[in-house]
Specification:
Number of strands: 21
Helix content: under 10%
Radius of gyration: 22 Å
Strand content: over 45%
Length: 399
C-alpha cells in the first residue's frame, strides 16, 4: 500500500526553501469548546456527562518562490484543568489518554503550474470538491488527510480535481493517521476500513450561470476483508432567486456481492423578509454500508445533516428537515427540525430540534447550541434512552 512519507515531504520543503528567501506568514486560532448532555442518570451540566477542550493551532505559510508554497500546522489540545472541576473528559485528543498533547495536522508543499495546482502532503479536503472524504468542522478542530491533490482549470468554467487519499486522522485522536473509513464501512458486526486508500476524480462545471454541477467518483482500494469498491456522488444546484433548488444523489458499492447503498436528496430555499427558510429531504436505502464520510465515518454529505442526526439518516431512512435563519442586531439565530422515518425492521423513528445562536464579540466567533433528540424506541446513543438534551458551546479566535 502506498503511503505518503513525511520525511520525503520535509526534505522537499527544506530543499525548496533553500532556493529562495521565503516569505513567511504566521497564523492560527485558539478555541475553547464545551459540551454536556443528560444521558443516563445524570442532569445537564453535570460533570459526568460533560467534556471540554482548550485548543491552539499554529500555522506557518511560506512563499518559497518559483511557484512553490509550503504550509505547516501544529495543533495543541489541552483542558486547562477543567477535568478537575466541571468536566470528566475531552472532545479531542492528539494522543490517546493524554490530556495535554499536540499533533501535526497540516504539512504540505504546493506548486502552481499555469492553470494547475498540485498539493502534496497532509491537508484538509473541502466537502464541495470531495463530498465523501472531507474535513469536518463540527469538533474542536477539523480532521485532515494524507493526500496528493491536483486541481486543473484549463477548461473554461470547469474545475477538475484528481486525488489519491491514503489516510486520515480521527476526531477523537488527531495524531493517528490511519486507514480511511470507520463506521461508514460498517459491515455486519465489524467496521471495515479502506486499507489502500482512495482515488478520486471530481468535475465541477459552471457553464450555466448560477447552476453549478459537481460529479465525483471514488475507487476505494482494498476494503478490509473485501475486494476494492467504488463510490459516486452528484450535486446540482440552481442558485437563482427567489427560490433556490438543489439535487444530490450518490452510491457506495462495497463489492463482494454486498448490497449497494444509494441515496438522493432535494432541497428548496428562499427568503421571507429577513428570514431564510429551507426544506430538505433525503432518502437512503438499506444497503450494507452507511452513506457517511469515508474519511472519518462520522458526518454525511446529505442536505438533511444536522448537528447530531447522522447515525439515523445515513442508512435505510427517509428524512425531512425544516430550517429557519434569522438575523439579529448581533449575530443570527438558526432553528432546524428533523423528522426521520426508520425503514428498517427496528422502526426506530427519530426527531431532532436544534436551536443555534452564532455571533461575534471581541473579534471572536461564538457558537451556542441546544440539541433535543428523541426516538420511538429505547435505542438512543447505543443505550436505553428515549431522548436526550445536549448543550454545545465553542469560541474561536483567529489570528
Amino acid at each position: 500500500m502506498i503511503r505518503l512519507s513525511t520525511i520525503t515531504i520535509m526534505v522537499t520543503m527544506l530543499t525548496t526553501a533553500s532556493m529562495a528567501e521565503a516569505d513567511i506568514q504566521l497564523g492560527g486560532q485558539g478555541v475553547l469548546y464545551y459540551q454536556s448532555n443528560d444521558l443516563g442518570e445524570t442532569d445537564l451540566f453535570s460533570k459526568e456527562n460533560s467534556s471540554a477542550n482548550a485548543g491552539l493551532e499554529l500555522s506557518l505559510k511560506a512563499d518559497a518562490g518559483n511557484g512553490f508554497n509550503l504550509e505547516y500546522q501544529e495543533t495543541f489540545l489541552g483542558t486547562l484543568g477543567l477535568e478537575n472541576s466541571i468536566v470528566s473528559g475531552t472532545r479531542q485528543n492528539a494522543h490517546k489518554d493524554d490530556l495535554n498533547s499536540h499533533a501535526m495536522t497540516r504539512f504540505y508543499v504546493s506548486k502552481k503550474i499555469e492553470n494547475t495546482l498540485i498539493k502534496l502532503g497532509r491537508q484538509e479536503l473541502p466537502k464541495s470538491l470531495s463530498p465523501l472524504a472531507f474535513s469536518e468542522k463540527w469538533n474542536v478542530f477539523k480532521n485532515s488527510f494524507d493526500a496528493v491533490v491536483v486541481v486543473n482549470k484549463d477548461i473554461i468554467d470547469t474545475t477538475i480535481v484528481g486525488a489519491y487519499v491514503s489516510g486520515s486522522n480521527r476526531h477523537n485522536n488527531l495524531s493517528t493517521f490511519d486507514d480511511l473509513a470507520g463506521n461508514s464501512m460498517a459491515l455486519g458486526a465489524g467496521a471495515g476500513t479502506i486499507k489502500s486508500g482512495a482515488y478520486m476524480l471530481t468535475v465541477k462545471n459552471e457553464s450555466f450561470k448560477n447552476v453549478p454541477i459537481t460529479a465525483s467518483y471514488y475507487a476505494l482500494k482494498d476494503i478490509a476483508g473485501l475486494e476494492s469498491g467504488n463510490a459516486l456522488w452528484l450535486d446540482f444546484k440552481s442558485n437563482q432567486a427567489p427560490v433556490k433548488f438543489a439535487l444530490q444523489a450518490g452510491q457506495i458499492d462495497p463489492a463482494n456481492n454486498l448490497d449497494k447503498t444509494t441515496a438522493f436528496g432535494l432541497k428548496a430555499s428562499g427568503r421571507v423578509e429577513n428570514i431564510g427558510l429551507s426544506l430538505a429531504y433525503s432518502s437512503v436505502n438499506d444497503g450494507d454500508v452507511s452513506m457517511q464520510n469515508v474519511g472519518t465515518g462520522v458526518k454525511t454529505p446529505l442536505y438533511t445533516q444536522m448537528i447530531d442526526n447522522q447515525d439515523f439518516i445515513s442508512r435505510d431512512a427517509d428524512t425531512v428537515v425544516l430550517k429557519a435563519v434569522g438575523k439579529l442586531p448581533v449575530g443570527k439565530v438558526i432553528a432546524q427540525y428533523n423528522i426521520t422515518t426508520d425503514n428498517s425492521d427496528a422502526k426506530n423513528n427519530y426527531n431532532e430540534f436544534d436551536l443555534i445562536y452564532k455571533f461575534k464579540a471581541f473579534d471572536t466567533k461564538m457558537f451556542l447550541a441546544y440539541i433535543g433528540q428523541s426516538t420511538d424506541k429505547k435505542t438512543f446513543a447505543g443505550g436505553t434512552e428515549e431522548s436526550a438534551n445536549t448543550v454545545r458551546f465553542w469560541s474561536r479566535y483567529n489570528f
